[in-house]
Amino acid sequence: MPELISYLIYLSPILVVIVLCRGDLHYATHEAALFALIFAFCILGLREDVGYDYAHYTNFYYSEYFSPELLSKALLAITLPLDSHYWYIAIHGLITIFFIYLTYRREKKVFLLLSFLCLPYFFLESFTIMRQEVAIAISFYAYSLFRSRDKRFFFWIIAAAGFHYSSIVFSLILCSIWNEKRYKIVLLFLFAVATAVLINHIISIVEIIYPRTTFYDGRNTTGVKFLVFSLALFLLSLDKTEKLTHYFIVSIGLLICGTALKVDAVFIRLSYYFFIPICFLSWKRIFYSIKVTQATPFMALIFSYFLFITVRTGDFSGSLVPYNSILGEIQ
């Protein structure tokens, strides 16, 4: 019974979107976003020992470990006087959800909201990599500004790096194609391919300069699952009416994802930012030309959502299921 209730809890924000948007991806309502994200925050911010790195962040808090990023360091300093790691975790969740709400208010796309909740790179990973997901949420908003070439984009990518330096790679790629010149896109893609091919040689040089990288030498099947899923998502999302820039950015993410498997699956997290453009697609067609019904994207997203909940569920501390809240245990 606790497992069933846990899955219903995770499903609640999605149900809110489906009901308030009448099952229509193109019917945007402010209420749908607001209530769905309130539910999402409650699940994310009020959890107890849910998320693979939950114990690590708790230990960091009480040992007063300050990460090098300025804004992340400031957030820890602000919450330390409260003498409770619950505040530290809840505020991370609140900032993450707030920037997704800002992005929705700007774009007014239901699919953007659903994809944040359902795709494995975003909401579900917020239970584990809290600081990076704050950076990803800010990058969501920054990407929305990038699409319209709003110069506030530059401020927010700096803010994202203030929470986690992993956002810098994504930010540099976007800055380099700000003017969308075709030759720049081609050169960047070729550079990414060359890096992927030569990664073992690059790492051997980096290990000499920065020996700590020798720690990352593992493999795991979760990384392979992410790569296969991401590649399938990329192929399904192809639509001749969409801008090629979206697909270029996603293809860089796939290269990072595949390259990371040669080193350690933990580095796949660097690719998460590059799947943000998928959330901004219209999803009226798949495989370039096949028209889809309104129900198809909903069902596909919910399937991927539950698939990766099961990936993050098991007999280990921080398992997503059963869900536990600071308000009390599920009976």
* Proportion in helices: 55-70%
What is the end-to-end distance?
Answer: 7 Å
Outline the low-pLDDT stretches: 212-219
Which quaternary structure do these chains form? single chain
Account of the protein in words:
By secondary structure, this protein is mainly α. The protein has one domain. The chain contains 14 helices and two strands. It has helices at 2-20, 30-45, 54-62, 70-79, 85-107, 110-118, 130-147, 152-163, 167-176, 182-197, 199-209, 221-237, 244-260, 295-311; strands at 285-286, 290-291. The chain has a two-stranded antiparallel sheet. The radius of gyration is 19 Å and the shape is globular.
Quick synopsis:
With 331 residues, this protein is mostly helical.
Helices, strands, pairings?
Blueprint: H1 2-20, H2 30-45, H3 54-62, H4 70-79, H5 85-107, H6 110-118, H7 130-147, H8 152-163, H9 167-176, H10 182-197, H11 199-209, H12 221-237, H13 244-260, E1 285-286, E2 290-291, H14 295-311
Helix pairs in contact: 1-2, 2-5, 4-8, 5-6, 5-7, 6-14, 7-8, 8-9, 10-13, 12-13
Annotation keywords:
single chain; 331 residues; mainly alpha; two-stranded antiparallel ribbon; 14 helices; 2 strands; 62% helix
